[in-house]
Amino acid sequence: MSQPQNNHKAAISTRSLAIYYGDFRAVKDVDLNIVPRRITAIIGPSGCGKSTVLRAFNRMNDFIPTCHSEGEILYHGHNIYDSDVDPVSVRQHIGMVFQKPNPFPKSIYENIAWGAKINGYKDSLDELVEDSLTQAALWDEVKDNLTQSGLSLSGGQQQRLCIARALAVKPDIILMDEPCSALDPIATLKIEELMRSLSKKYTIIIVTHNMQQAARVSDFTAFFTMDEDRAGRMVEYGETSQIFTRPRKKQTEDYITGRYG
């Protein structure tokens, strides 16, 4: 499988990754090197394992009793599935933003500060809250109402609050599982602009069904599909401009041009 050419160590890598739900192999043979401080989009038809792979990057699949994996996911050279690795620590370094905004039923301030407090954050919480909300392009909209419930915000604001919450624990990598699918076009544009801004500092991996969105915001794209045995696999991975204009595989071209999927 060809990989993007770059002169950087991968932010996170998979080696012969396969993921199972019980006896069913949902994903197979994934070898992927994620480029640091860039946006990588994972695209493909429904059921091809995009979200399953994304959740594997910070061990969210651990919460599904029947799910287990084979192969390796390497972060700073260590397999995050080794027995001596604490999954909570993994999630501090590799944050997650979900498809539907899910603020805590707490104030805007506590949504940001809570995770830092339980992780023993020693510096100024006021500064952390302001910095996280500023990075998420939300501070100017909420700075005078930090005590109001996070649930009182609009859908787009709630999603930016969830991004700020993920940023507050100082991650290296941010995973986003269709973060705009529940949002209107204006809120979607704000999230896309935010992703571009955050990619200067963070590695972002996004699953999206919206190919226009992948083309707009991502630097690299991985295309997944399903084999005859219903297992998802990666067909092609490269710079987004190449994937969308000069795909190497016919399956990729067929999907990009709408012939299937």
Shape: globular
Query: How are the strands of the biggest sheet laid out side by side?
Result: 6-7-8-3-9-10
Our Rg estimate from Cα atoms comes to: 18 Å
CATH architecture of the domain at 12-99 and 172-256: 3-Layer(aba) Sandwich
Low-confidence stretches: none
CATH topology of the domain at 12-99 and 172-256: Rossmann fold
Helical content stands at 25-40%
Beta-strand share of residues: 25-35%
Topology, number of strands: 10
Oligomeric composition of the shown chains: single chain
CATH superfamily of the domain at 12-99 and 172-256: P-loop containing nucleotide triphosphate hydrolases
Main beta sheet, described? Answer: 6 strands, mixed
Find the structural class using helix and strand composition: alpha/beta
Q: What is the overall pLDDT average?
A: 94
CATH class of the domain at 12-99 and 172-256: Alpha Beta
Series of H and E elements = EEEHEEHEHHHHEHEHEEHH
Number of helices: 10
Span between termini: 22 Å
